[in-house]
Amino acid sequence: MSDLELHPDEALCEPSPCPGPVAEFYPAREVPLGGVRGVFVERVLPQRDLPTVGAWCFFDHFGSPTVTKTDAPPDIDPHPHIGLQTVTWPFVGRIRHRDSVGSDVEIHPGQLNLMTSGRGVAHSEYYAADAPAGHGLQLWIALPGNRAQIDAHFEQHRDLPVYQAPGIRATVLIGSLVGHTSPATAYTPIIGADVVIEPGAEVTLPLEPGFEYALMLIEGDVTAAGTELPPGPLLYLGNERTELRLETTAGAHFLLIGGEPFDEELVMWWNFVGRSHEDIVTARNDWENHNLERFPDIAGHSPEQRIPAPPLPGLHLKPRKRRVGSARS
Ligand code: MN
After folding, report:
1. What is the SS3 assignment for 56-91?
2. What is the tens place of the pLDDT at every residue in 118-133?
3. Residue 246 Cα, ligand 1 centroid: separation in angstroms?
4. What distance in angstroms lies between residue 161's CA and the mean position of ligand 1's atoms?
């Protein structure tokens, strides 16, 4: 996935306060991916008042039932990333992933694909024409400052741990849940889990009190910590919770994300996560100037296929304050 908003805002994300247990809705907003192609996704992170949940800094839902549909597949030509990990989690369809560390793999539902950009990587994502229209999630995880300059690498995990109890089945994408630990490489204390609850179930999921959590309902109905949640928006649950009570009538499928509140300032712009305006300017110049040491070519792609970086905003950076606790529920 690439952030192809035509004029993406530059956002300085301030260190997180600890809000305690809250229940706040953050709406999904429809964002065009590649203006020419006219493909839309629903984005729930980052939000103006909630830049991160743990180290999760970006959360897109593609091919959702409610997003504006076009004929074009959400194919993404070669584009760069720095300072983050991309997590690709499809429900329907198959995606061919190629990157500048030599990966050329097909991504299938039920398999986690994790690309760690470190100081620089480029990749492309194309949907298989003979598969149903793609539906799934892509999220980004910010790398901590002491790991932001590591070498890029790619992981595919086809056998993820599953926590099962009566009424609930949770696939652990990254991090640990109830003693089930994903093999995916994490650089901060974090959790991401795909959770399915059976119709009529009432279940309780143990949580880490030091983590903050949020969930997004993909399908069905669910009441989480007493708050009924429709499909689409992000429900932010804050931290200092030891458990999460979940109830459903028709059954539910949702993604649970969480982690230790990320206490570093981040500057996010386009496909880059940096520490400063200068980090972003340098990465943009390295991409535009074909710095092959930082962003090597991807086998099978011509230079003409590269997505050009949008123009940098002319205004000086302004901090984007996190305002958890304001009325939004
Ligand atoms: Mn991408």
Report:
1. EEEEEEECCCCCCCCCCCCCEEEEEEECEEEEEEEE
2. 999 999 999 888 888 8
3. 33
4. 25
Segment 22-47, tens digit of pLDDT: 999 999 999 887 645 568 889 999 99
CA separation for the pair 9, 272 (Å, rounded): 12
For residue 57, how far is its CA from the centre of ligand 1 (angstroms)?
13
Report the distance separating Cα 3 and Cα 139, nearest Å.
11
Between vectors from CA 42 to CA 231 and to CA 195, what angle results, nearest 5°? 45
Phi then psi for 143, rounded to 5 degrees?
A: -80, 145
- In the chain, the number of structural domains is 1
pTM given for the model: 0.92
Token pair for 83:
């300072």
Asked if the structure places residue 298 within a domain, the reply is no
Give residues with Cβ within 8 angstroms of 123, minimum separation 6.
Answer: 78, 79, 81, 86, 97, 98, 99, 100, 103, 115, 298
Report residue 59 as tokens: 């959360």
Measured between alpha carbons, how far is 270 from 281 in angstroms, rounded to an integer? 11
What are the structure tokens assigned to 119, written together? Answer: 């100081």
> Is 128:91 a contact under the CB 8 Å cutoff?
no
Query: What single-letter amino acid sits at 227?
Result: T
CA of 83 to the centre of ligand 1 (A): 12
Spacing, Cα 308 to ligand 1 middle (Å): 13
Q: At which residue do the structure tokens 């890029």 appear? A: 152
- Whole-angstrom distance, CA of residue 117 vs CA of residue 123: 10
Distance 106 CA to ligand 1 centre (A): 15
150 is a domain residue: yes
Judge whether 318 lies within some domain. Answer: no
Which position has the token pair 């390295």?
Answer: 286
**What CATH number is given to the structural domain containing 244?**
2.60.120.10
